[in-house]
């Protein structure tokens, strides 16, 4: 989702117990001098964590923020941690080359290992490169591009000259790699509400070199979710937003999707389920996981085996928030917020203990 301007670099103190680790392979925290940051000091949107078992290191990718990296260029920066608590200062791992078609963005970076390389998916746009009209709105180029590196920490270089993976006449964002049980790659992405009105979640099949290999297919529309609230625009139009897809195969083989939109209390992290078990769906909406201005989450396995989710909260001047999750087979549930790792942006209410959704049903929640 959109990264807003930074008003200030947030400050926080360090010093709390690292996450649990297995006796066989303990996770050792870096010294404070090497990893001086905690999540409450790291302004970030759309966080993506790769848990690299070979190096026993967590790599967190996000849009480059000059206030954090000291570099004003458009691109992707990366933090590293051994314990999810103490993080290194950011390293710029990708910068958009001069002369590229894009002029802004660098949203929602994802990094995936594929065919012996590491691939970075990230979204750019150019408001001056207009595509036509959608109601009262002028549409323009926006899409997820691909970059490749030999190492997880880069440097990443553009693939195919930086042309978006999806056709340039579609305003798309937040592209996410999904590999189906047959080993076939797909790009799952949000087709922007700016162009569609009712934003869609779509998928396009990919070749082995991660180029589009077929026509896009609509998986669902934001307005399909009973909890989704339309956003009234200055022109009077009411639109529905799709953001931040990530696919997850549960322990029983159920195909789930994390995604975000807007609910009664602002930005929301939610989940959907494929009834067929395949990318084609049909997809049913399972409700929200985290509310209170929280969203664009992703899942990873900690080195001690726990399923974790990171998302950003709040939307403005966002911080990374970590949750311990549970795979229930047919859905995901929130176990708890890992406040020992990321602090608290909001108080924890007893009324949500044991619930899989912060649904606000109880006063004060």
TrEMBL record:
It comes from Sphingomonas insulae. This is Glycoside hydrolase family 43 protein. Belongs to the glycosyl hydrolase 43 family. Pathway: Glycan metabolism; L-arabinan degradation. Keywords: Glycosidase, Hydrolase. Pfam families: Glyco_hydro_43. InterPro entries: GH43_arabinanases, Glyco_hydro_43, Glyco_hydro_beta-prop_sf. GO terms for molecular function: hydrolase activity.
């Amino acid at each position: 989702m959109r990264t807003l301007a930074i008003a200030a670099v947030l400050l926080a103190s360090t010093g709390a117990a690292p996450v649990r680790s297995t006796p066989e392979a303990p996770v050792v925290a870096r010294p404070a001098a090497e990893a001086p940051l905690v999540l409450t000091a790291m302004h970030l949107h759309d966080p993506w964590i790769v848990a690299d078992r070979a190096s026993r290191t967590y790599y967190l990718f996000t849009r480059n923020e000059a206030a954090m990296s000291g570099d004003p260029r458009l691109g992707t920066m990366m933090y590293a941690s051994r314990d999810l608590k103490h993080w290194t200062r950011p390293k710029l791992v990708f910068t958009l080359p001069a002369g590229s078609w894009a002029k802004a963005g660098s949203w929602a970076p994802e990094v995936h290992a594929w065919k012996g390389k590491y691939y970075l998916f990230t979204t750019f746009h150019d408001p001056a490169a207009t595509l036509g009209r959608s109601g009262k709105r002028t549409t323009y180029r926006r899409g997820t591009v691909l970059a490749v590196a030999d190492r997880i920490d880069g440097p990443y270089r553009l693939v195919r000259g930086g042309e978006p993976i999806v056709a340039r006449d579609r305003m798309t964002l937040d592209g996410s790699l999904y590999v189906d049980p047959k080993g076939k790659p797909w790009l799952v992405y949000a087709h922007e509400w700016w162009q569609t009105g009712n934003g869609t979640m779509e998928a396009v099949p990919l070749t082995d070199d991660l180029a589009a290999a077929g026509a896009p297919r609509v998986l669902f529309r934001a307005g399909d979710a009973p909890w989704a609230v339309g956003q009234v625009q200055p022109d009077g139009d009411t639109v529905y937003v799709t953001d931040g897809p990530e696919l997850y195969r549960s322990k029983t083989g159920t195909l789930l999707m994390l995604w975000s939109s807007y609910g009664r209390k602002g930005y929301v992290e939610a989940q959907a389920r494929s009834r067929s078990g395949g990318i084609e769906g049909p997809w049913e909406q399972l409700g929200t996981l985290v509310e209170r201005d929280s969203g664009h989450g992703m899942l990873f396995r900690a080195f001690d085996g726990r399923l974790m989710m990171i998302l950003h909260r709040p939307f403005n001047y966002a911080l990374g928030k970590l949750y311990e999750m549970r795979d229930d087979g047919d859905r995901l549930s929130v176990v708890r917020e890992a406040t020992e790792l990321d602090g608290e942006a909001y108080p924890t209410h007893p009324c949500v203990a044991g619930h899989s959704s912060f649904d606000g049903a109880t006063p004060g929640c």
